[in-house]
Amino acid sequence: MDISVRRVAASDEAEWARLYAGYRAFYRLPEDPTVVASTWAWVRDEQWQMTGLVAEGDGRLVGLANLRWFARPSAGRIGLYLDDLFTAPESRGAGAATALLREASRMAAERDAQVVRWITASDNATARRLYDRHATATAWVTYDMAPAL
């Protein structure tokens, strides 16, 4: 399968939503069409400095990546954060994820970003094998804190 990567287009909505719903299901997130629609609007319109990429193969979308720019004050530079990366199960192993990672790297280089960064679940062994071929795992630990007034 020949894979090509490009930015999302308005006409991708239904196929992108199918892929993003698959991403959410993989991470055992509840079905929520509102979240899918909100995220679609963000990547389609490049809100919050987000960019949506899609991988195409055999005339259909087979993967997606949602990215956003972030400031790195300690370095005085910017970085590109990969929020979501997903390949349709039936298309895994065809190179879509690698192509999406390469495009993220190209985008970062084009804007002189210092890093492309992402997180994944520690038990996501399949993805981690791919990531280990393209990036270096860090020693940093991630924390989440709930907003409170």
From TrEMBL:
Alphabetical list of SUPFAM superfamilies matching this protein: Acyl-CoA N-acyltransferases (Nat)
InterPro entries membership: Acyl_CoA_acyltransferase, Diverse_Substrate_AcTransf, GNAT_dom
Domain N-acetyltransferase: residue ranges: 3-149
Alphabetic keyword roster: Acyltransferase, Transferase
Origin: domain of life: Bacteria
PROSITE patterns referenced in this protein's UniProt entry, alphabetically: GNAT
Name of the protein this chain belongs to: Acetyltransferase
